[in-house]
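Quick one: co-fold with cobalt (II) ion.
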Amino acid sequence: MKNTPDRSAPCWCGSKKPYGLCHLPTDERIAAYRRRGALVPSRKMLKNEAQIQGIRESARINVAVLDEVAQRIREGVTTQDIDRWVYEKTTAMGAVPAPLHYEGFPKSVCTSVNDQVCHGIPSQDVVLREGDILNVDCSTLYRGYYSDSSRMFIIGKTSAEKKRLVDVARECVMKGLEQIKPWGFLGDMGQAVHDHARKNGYSVVREIGGHGIGLAFHEDPWVSYVTSRGTDMLLVPGFVFTIEPMINMGTEDIYIDADNDWTIYTEDGLPSAQWEIQVLVTPEGHEVLAY
Ligand code: MF3
Ligand code: CO
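Sure, here it is.
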């Protein structure tokens, strides 16, 4: 009987519940998928209730910070102003902006304007003008737990083309989200995202994706939005990750700013849009933690 797991021993997840009443059924189901060749999540990717509660609290702050940006953003402000608001609101709530000094990133938030795809660095020199579209990407560290979400903002009135890009990019995230349920696959989400983008004449950035998140800013797995239904990682309750596709008006090709080694631009100079949500796979389906 040496291969029989000890059902009464504490579960590996740290819940303090007996294994038999905690992750044993999940582990058996995961093992069955693995035997059939599926890519399955590691134990580290599956958060317990206490960890999820910590991530929820971090995410609540992240949402409040983005709400603050939404209240104050308008024509004439600089992206450096946004950085200051994010730093002040986050620290006032007892948290730390996760981007600050992350792998050398110099600011508290990413602000990506028009043809900037992501990782735009806030600057005094970038003054928001009527018609600009921009992504503000906030990430929070609170009591050891990470959260991450981003929204698009339109300054004043923009062109119908840019407005449609912003709207479709958001729809892509929602279509992806609809696919998130236990025992589905990340590829179900990826396919829904790129189907909707391509149907609307847009392309999806391939090289940059989402990520697991919770106990670290960027955890495995890397999350692609150009995957196919039924492929990529199996979705299991307790898995927390981001849906954050970058949708380009023109071609999918991008390049990195050689001066700062961070900011990504579209190769053709056409605009790009991105929304990001942080999602938990639940036994019933999913829960949006940050948006
Ligand atoms: N918030 C970004 C993401 O969605 C990460 C940016 S890394 C940073 O993953 F250092 F630029 F903040
Ligand atoms: Co992210």
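If it helps, Residues 24 and 36 are 19 Å apart (CA to CA).
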